[in-house]
Amino acid sequence: MKAKIAEKKTTMSRTIRADYLARVEGEGAMYIRLKGDEVREVKLKIFEPPRFFEGFLRGRSYLEAPDMTARICGICPVAYQMSSVHAMEQIAGVTVDGPIRDLRRLLYCGEWIESHALHIFMLHLPDFLGYESAIHMAPDFKAEVEMALTLKKYGNELMALVGGREIHPINVRVGGFYKAPARDEVRGFRDKLIWGMEASRKAVALVAGLEFPDFEQDYEFVAMRHPDEYPLTEGRLVSSRGLDIDLSEFENEFEEQQVEHSNALHCVHRERGNYFVGPLARYALNYDRLSPAARELAVKGGLDPVVRNPFKSIIVRAVEMFWAYEEALRIVDSYEPPEKPFVETPPRRGTGFGCSEAPRGICWHRYSIDDDGLIIDAKIVPPTSQNQRTIESDLREYVKGRTSLSDDKLQWQCEQAVRNYDPCISCATHFLKLTVDRG
Amino acid sequence: MSVLVIGAGNDCRQDDGFGIAVARALASRSLDGVEVLELSGEGGSILAALEGREQVYLVDAVHSGADPGELHRLDAGSETIPCSFFHYSSHDFAVAEALEMARILDRLPPVVVVFGVEGERFDHGIGLSTAIQERVEEVADCIQGEISASACR
Predict the structure, then answer these.
(1) Class for the domain spanning A53-428
(2) How is residue B79 annotated by DSSP?
(3) Residue ranges of the domains in chain A?
């Protein structure tokens, strides 16, 4: 009798679904269909409506690109601003360095800090500790939540200091900034950054002590790589399977594909399919570019130089948050305002490429502009569209060995697996190809 | 300055711009000792704005299923703000979550009153629908009245 029940159970159809994924940016759903122990179907459904950014950039001035693309995301606007200004500067034949370049990095550190602090503590940690949300977690972890809020607040303050405001900064322009902050304002940030480094150390210790599912995958990691720095705004694109290309070669290697179940395009490697962008990729491909203190912290956090367990991305984010505070401190301590906050970038016909490391992975842009500086064509590939297929592949593999779990538990763990990627669904949904078949 | 008015929302999302419209109406009255802030509704910024305040009035559009234009007044000091109330949901840490988090962390100012007006349209676009637009000055008057009454106490 027992055997019969077991047999029946193994061939039974089950559906695990989360109709509205909580604690991710934007609107998406997850659907998994099982037949016995077999995973029949996995879909990350993104129903956030498309916003046609690439379409309405056409015909606008190249100088408007950073302000318009910043609106793609309220969590990582700087990523869009930095990728777009670099592309436009490439067309103009201009390189920005010195204090303006440092200010850009400082602004970007602010974004990494606020985004990582939010994700580590408010979105991902409740999963590990068994709470429904950060609100439910807070009564038992008051000190940690207080620390998280301050960590995030300082990130937002850095963005406001350099960018003019914390969400959708208004001070960024092609060639630099409209206004450079005063020396004292920037240097006055020092104590907060030192506090942030110490708090980030505590964050690493906290998340390193969590329990992690035994789950590793053989990913192709893709990230930027700079000759000297941990990557933020400049570098080549490299991968753990030997890719090493200039930004202009991105479309030779990768392509965006439309899938029926998602309003966001899936970006895949043309030959090898899905790949992985974000903290785990950045870390694995740039471990040697981390500061000695950040590397030491990674070791203390139990991390090897390559981490293939996506659940451990929470530790890598905490190490990166430390690095961002440390890098911000380096910039603040040596800051002298530039004589002029931007370099001139006269309009010139051409095509340019920009890419930067958003907190959740590479954000690649291509623009073509005409003689008057009007945008003829734009293409934006955000990180979440690049990770979508890997998220689905993770879910498929993760569920395989865990079909005996109850539906509730399986759903919980699958949602946690999605949140490993800190997906930004709003960013990923920017394009929908519509075909009208009139027979 | 301890009296703060927060207008939360996004004026590029039609009725979601209600809080911003009320904030602007009140800012144009230049009330003594009253600071007015326009915020997106992101929870972290709201939490930061509450710090050190005595009296906070927060205005936002809501969607609870009531008729468009219906006004809700909630006293956050004595009641929980329903998380499903507000339209904004970025990373699930928004107005209601920020106020609840403030309560848990003992950061809730002594007076926090939330005015929510039932919105009708939350799609991309500028401008409030008629039923909502009519409420802007009325809610601004309510808040001004409550501020004056508390100053007399």
Answers:
(1) mainly alpha
(2) S
(3) 53-428
